[in-house]
Amino acid sequence: MTTLSTTLHSHTSFKYHKSKLFPIFTPTKLQIPNSTLSETLAHTTNSVLSSNSVYLARHIHVSNAYKQNRENCRYEKDETLDIFKRWMAFIREVLPGGSWWNLCDFEREIDSSQIAAKPVTVLKALSQMWALLADEKWICYTAFGALTVAALSEISMPGIITASVFSAQNGETLLFYKSSHVLVLLCITSGICSGLRSGCFAIANMILVKRLRETLYSSLLLQDISFFDTEAVGDLTSRIGTDCQRLSHTMGTDIHLILRNILQGTGALINLMALSWPLALSSLVICFILSAIFLIYGQYQKKVAMLAQDFVASANEVAQETLSSMRTIRAYGTEKEEFERFTRWLDRLALVGMRESLAYGLWNLSFSTFYRSTQVFAVILGGISILSGSVSAEQLTKYVLYCEWLIYAAWRLQDSMSSLLQSIGACEKVFQLMHLSPSHQFLSKGVKLQRLTGRVDFVNVSFHYSSRERAPILRNVNFSIQSNEVVAIVGASGSGKSTLINLLLRLYEPISGEIFINGTPLREMDISWLRVKIGYVGQEPHLFHMDIKSNISYGCFRSITQEEIESAAKNANAHEFISTLPNGYDTIVDDNLLSGGQKQRIAIARALLRDPIILVLDEATSALDAESEGYIRVVVFHIDSLVDLSLGLFHRLSTIKAADRILVMDNGQVAEIGNHRELLRRNGLYAQLFKTQMDAPPFTKHQKTMPLIFGEGLELSGGIKWTFFNHSKLRRIELNGLYKAELLNMIFQSGKREEIYEKGEKQQKQRREDKTIVASQHGKREVTYERS
C-alpha cells in the first residue's frame, strides 16, 4: 500500500514563544495511506468548518497578540537603539579617537563675565609660595638639609648592599662586617632625616595654605563694590576653600618628592656612568622619552585641573544660591529644576575627570612599558657584557639596581610634577585674585575734618555701572542738603534713588561731577573716618550669625555698655520684642528666628548706636508695621540732637510728608525739590505719584499678583475683611511676623486659590455698585471691601 507523505498545518497545533509575546504555528507531518486520503481531507475539512467559531476567536486572539508583540518589539528596538546611541556618544566624547583630548568645548562653558584666570608658570607660582613663607624660612631650610642627607644615604645603599653580598660570597669577612656597619648607620641616618624632613615640610605646608587664604581673603575685602557685581559669591568662597586646599600637599608632598627624586636620580646616574657609560646612556635615553611624553600629558593635566576647579566653583555657586533661597524654591516647586542645574555642572566635572583618567592611563601605560623594557634591556646587555668579560657580576648587579633606581626616580619625579601642575593649574585663579589692586579708597589716607556738620552737595554728578556703560543711571544731578535737615527721596523704580545713596556712602565713584561734604570733595576724605560718622540702614538689612547684642554693636569701635545697647534698641522700638526672646540680647540670630520687621528694627538700632552725623535710610522702614514705623518716624525726624542730617528713601506717605524736603527723581535726574504741600501745588510728578498711591487700582482677575489677606485667620468663610494692594507693594507687607512668601504658601496650601479669585471679582463688582471706600491707615491708602 502506497502512502503519501502530506504535511498539514493544524489550526489547533500552536505554541507560544519563550517570550510569551506571540504564538507560532507548528506544522504537523502526518503519514496518511493513499486510499484514505480523500476521507482524511474531508474529515479535516469538516473539523475545521465545525470549529470555525473557535478558530476565528483564536485567530483574533493570535492577531491581537501578534500586533502587541510587534509594538513591544518596536519599543524594545527603539530603546536599544537609544542606548546604543548614548554609548556611541560617550565613546566619541571620552575614548581615544573622539574629541576626548580637546577641552575647548568645556572652556566655552565658563562664565565669561567673571575674571578669566591667566596662566601661571611653575617658577612664578613657586616664588609666590616662597614669599608667603618668608617668616618661616628656617623651617624650609631645615627640611631641605634633612632631605639632602636622607637622599644621599638612600642612594648609597645599593652599592653597599652589593658589596656586602659579594664580599660574603668571596669570603671577605672584614669587608662584609665593615659594609654591614655602614649599612646600619645609613639606615638610621636615613630614618631620622626622613622623619625630620616630612615633619618640617608638613608644617611649612600648613603655614602656606593658611597664608594663602589670609592673603586671598584680605585682597577680596579691599576690592571695589563693582568687583562683587560681576564675581559670584559662591565662586569666590570656592576659591578660598577648595582651590586653596589643592595646595595642601604642595610643600608636604610634591616639592618634597620632586627634590628627593632629583637628588636620588642624579646619584643613580653618576653611579651608572662610573660603572658603564654606554649602559648609562641607554637608560638616560629612555628617561628622556618618558620626559617628552610627560611634558605633553602634564600640560593637558594642568588645563584639566583648572577646568575641574571652575566646574566645582560653579556647582558650589548653584548650591549656595539654591540653599539660601529654599523658601522661594519651595513656593514655586522648582526643586527638580534646581537639582538638574546642579547636576549639570557635576556631569561636566565627571566627564572632564574621565578624560583626565584616560590620559593618565595612557601615560601610565607608556611608563610601565618603558620601565620594564629598561629592565629587560639591562639584563640582556649586562649578560652580553659578562659573557664578553668586560663587566663582572658584581658590576652588573650594581647596574641593575641603580638603573631601576634611576627609572623609578624619573617616574616619581614626573608623577610629583604632574601633581604640582594640577595644583598650580587649579590655583591660577587664586594667584590672580591675590594680586588684584585694592580699591584706591584704601590706598590714600585722605582728609579728616575737625568738625563735620552734615552739609551735602551734589554738583553735576553723573554715573553708570561698569557692566552697563550704555545705560546711564544719573545724569547731571545737582542738589544740596543742609545740616539738621531731613530729606526724603522718591521716584519710580529705576530712577536712581538707591544710586544716590551708594554714591554718598562712596560705594561707587561718580563718572563725572563731584560730591561735597562740608565743602570738602568726598573723594579726598578719609573713607574709614567718614564711614564711622555715617549710620546706614538698608532695605534688606543683614544680621550676622551672632547674638543680638553683638549685631547692634557691630561696627562701633569704641567701648559699648549694655545700657547704650538697650537705649538704642528702645529708640528703634526693638527692646520689647528682644526681651521676649529666650535669651534676650544674648539670643543668637537665626534666619528663621526674626521677621523682616524685627531685623530692620535691630539694624536701625545698630545705626543709632553709632551716634551718626549723617543717617541714611534706604527704605529702612519698609518691613515695619504702621505702629513701629510711626515710632521710628518720631525718633528719626523729631529728635534734632540725634543726627545732623537724615537722607532716606521712603515709601509710606506719612513718612514722606514728615520730611523737611522731598527730592523727586525721574529717569536719573532731579525732577522736583520741595516740601509736601509745595510739590502738590505744582501738580507735577510728585503729585502724580501721590495720586497714584492714593488711588490704588482694585484687584481684577487678570491681575498677576495674588491678593493679600488680612484678618484673624485665613478661612474663606464668615465675615472676613479683605484688603487689596498694588502689586508693587506686596513685597512690603508683613502679617503677624510672616513673610509674604510664607503667607502665600499658606494660601496655596489651603487649596482655595480659585475661591480667592472668585471672591475678588465679586468684591470688585460690589465696589462698582456701592462705590464704598473704607478708610486710610497711617497715611497709606488701603481699599477694603466687606463680604456680603
TrEMBL record:
This is ABC transporter B family member 26, chloroplastic. It comes from Buddleja alternifolia. SMART domains: AAA. Keywords: ATP-binding, Membrane, Nucleotide-binding, Transmembrane, Transmembrane helix. Residues 143-422 form the ABC transmembrane type-1 domain. Residues 758-788 are annotated as: Disordered. Pfam families: ABC_membrane, ABC_tran. GO terms for cellular component: membrane.
